[in-house]
Amino acid sequence: MENNKRNVLLIVNPCAGRTKSRAGTFDIVDKFSSNDYQFSVHTTTCQGDATNIVRKHYKNKDIVVCCGGDGTLNETINGVMEMPNRIPIGYIPSGSTNDLASTLGIPSDIKKATDLIMDGHTNSYDIGLFNNRYFSYIASFGAFTRLSYSTSQKLKNKIGHAAYILGVFKDLKSLKAIHAKVEYDGGVIEDDFVLGAIANSTSVAGLIKFKTEDVKLNDGFFELLLVRKINPLQAPLFFKRIVKQEYDGTQIIFLKTRNLKITSAEPISWTLDGEFGGAHKVSSVHVLSKAVDICSPKNPLFIDDATSNSSENDEACTDDSTNKE
Prior knowledge:
Blueprint: E1 6-12, H1 20-33, E2 37-43, H2 49-57, E3 63-68, H3 70-82, E4 89-93, H4 99-104, H5 110-119, E5 122-130, E6 133-135, E7 138-142, H6 147-150, H7 153-159, H8 162-172, E8 178-184, E9 187-199, E10 203-204, E11 208-209, E12 222-228, H9 235-243, E13 252-257, E14 259-272, E15 275-295, H10 305-308, H11 311-314
Parallel strand pairs: 1-2, 1-3, 3-4
Antiparallel strand pairs: 5-6, 5-15, 7-9, 7-14, 8-9, 8-14, 9-12, 10-11, 12-13, 14-15
């Protein structure tokens, strides 16, 4: 009977958000224990640890569940993408913003998010490959993009998303344009940009919002947003226009692409899923269609959701027979 139990690898980031992941671990374990799961629990101790945990403990697991912020999910996805069989990923959000969880429809309540994982429904989700590193929902450079990793964890734990808002006003005073050549499907733009972002989400850092009708999470395309150089005195106005999704196609550019290459004379610092992604003169992004399965509810942001989640996929969190090669 023991062999019939579903085997879970649970990864917990005890520093995410307002430390609720640490306290919530007991609730997660209690729910899994009372619902015929067997599991191993591992806590992260440093950046990149979630990826290493997946590498070391992935074998014979039916599902990987991570509890933390978007950065923890990013590391978990990077670990799963390295494996020959990509088992489903369960995400229990406990970070400061949790953009992707909101897009996917995953509850912020730890108990409800755990219930969702045990329900067994998954959606296939597009993943981005940035040079040699995977990201789940955002790769960006320029204004505001470094706030997620430059803002102190102590401040984020104390005041949550408001910490990012404080950083925005500070960044507005010192906008720096970056000259770059942007090559995307069907076009090239070379200019000075204050912001560039390629995303697969309806929200970035809780600040940049995309219209839900413009975003599909498994269509093989990511959304590209570019903002050309502006006068710093005009920055608040343009920031307001971005928040309101007012893209004029000239100063604020919005389009879809499967591939992206950005070249610059000086290294550009990137942010990947809220973490520092390195500084590069040449950066390439490729969309990997339906690369992973994430435990999440039925969602109109997924194309053909009813079709792609057949009876076999409904069992994906309990049976690894649907794993991708």
